[in-house]
Amino acid sequence: MGLAVLALVLWLGMLAWSRHQVQSRMAEQVADINALSGIRAINTIDDDGFFSSRGTLRIIMTDSDAVVPAAIIDWRVAYGILRTRFTGGADIETRSGTALLASQLSDGGKINFNARIGHLKSDLILNATLPDNLHYQDQGMTLRLSGARVKLVDNAQGLHLEGQWSGLDQKSPLRQMHLGDTHWSMLFPTDDAETEAQTETSSDGRPGRLDTLTVSQAMLQRQGGLPLTLSDLDVEGSTHHERQELSYRLKAHLGNAAFSEQQLGSASLDAVIRRINEQAARALLQTVGQDIERRWQRGREQTALQTPMPADEVAGVQDIGALIAPWEEEFFAVLTDSPQLVVNSLQLESPMLDQQMHLDGELTLDGTDIEAARIERLRTSWGRAAFKRRLDGQFTLHNTPPLLALVAGQSPEQDTLDLSIRKGVFLINDEPWFLLN
């Protein structure tokens, strides 16, 4: 009897400790949100029991008028010794007080989530399900998203974020797009996991983020045009850090491409973009984030005052050059280490060809004094020509089809073509073909 009582006391004590840890962590998260500029979080506990609690978290913007959209999260937590479980739902409350997802973007649905927090390993698993059919329409454009789910896993290996949907459709007066079953993921390893991977691979560098994307089918079609269909697309990308330089390796495979009823064939790619200035890239990301925040804040102010957006802001949405201009110095600084594209293998196979083509080689962008480059210069023909003269590349095309060799001005028996770019000139077998104007 005494042992049973002791075990019960220990169990209740451990449960009380777990409850305290979870509530302290929730309070810290709310405090972190409130420490952000222009954001306020209000966590209201409706029922605070020993074994479970429930409440509502409301997140609003505080740097504008009082009646603004707010994120509303209804949560319930069940405390445990080894793990604690969270469940609930989320929506966005509009200015009129209605639920955005439930009333405007779906037929009464909201984001449902469940999470598990492990206390021994300090890991987190979160699953979120969006309304089954989300739809949005504005100025002739419609957007539909079906079967969307998101999963987040945070453990000793790092942060793993993945998502999927069964269908994404976008249609406008100019074009329409469809993506079928799609799955994507991003893995951000911890420093310890990176160090362990570095030791296992015996490399001077360390691995970084890992990205994957799988699309069962994609369809693109312009108004009045024929559809382009892509099937079985698999993409995998990974970053690598070495001596203050960043590289990104990309592997991709396309099962089949078709233009209307014409089968174009399959393709696979294995390539690396390397010699990216990592410090400059981090500075660029920080500057881009600040610029996005500035544009978003200006847009909110213009909406509140019901005044038109400035012409430079409108141009920034439609013109990539104008979009880059506010952070052009940071953008060109990323290129100072003379980045290089290395194509290990590009394979093309098509029923229109009698053999599989294979391409390999590399392309380098000379980064000497490139930090002095400006977007305005690239808007001019002479500025673009000067920038293209920085390119230097050498590729080899194997198993060249006879017809393609004839088009390139070579003998049909020439099954290997040397393709190069030098000083703004594209050459085939060392013969100038055209200028990169």
Could you explain the architecture of this structure?
It comes from Kushneria pakistanensis. It holds the Pfam family DUF945. This is DUF945 domain-containing protein. This protein is α+β, with helices and mostly antiparallel strands. It folds into three domains: 1-131; 149-242, no CATH class; 266-437, no CATH class. Helix content is 27%, strand content 47%. It has ten helices and 23 strands. The protein has helices spanning 2-35, 100-105, 191-201, 278-305, 311-318, 320-324, 328-333, 375-378, 381-388, 402-407; strands at 39-48, 52-61, 70-78, 83-93, 111-118, 123-129, 133-138, 141-146, 149-155, 158-165, 167-171, 175-179, 182-189, 206-222, 228-242, 245-259, 262-277, 340-349, 357-365, 391-398, 417-422, 425-428, 431-435. The chain has a 23-stranded antiparallel β-sheet that branches. The radius of gyration is 27 Å and the shape is elongated. The model is unreliable at 199-204 and 311-318 (pLDDT under 50).
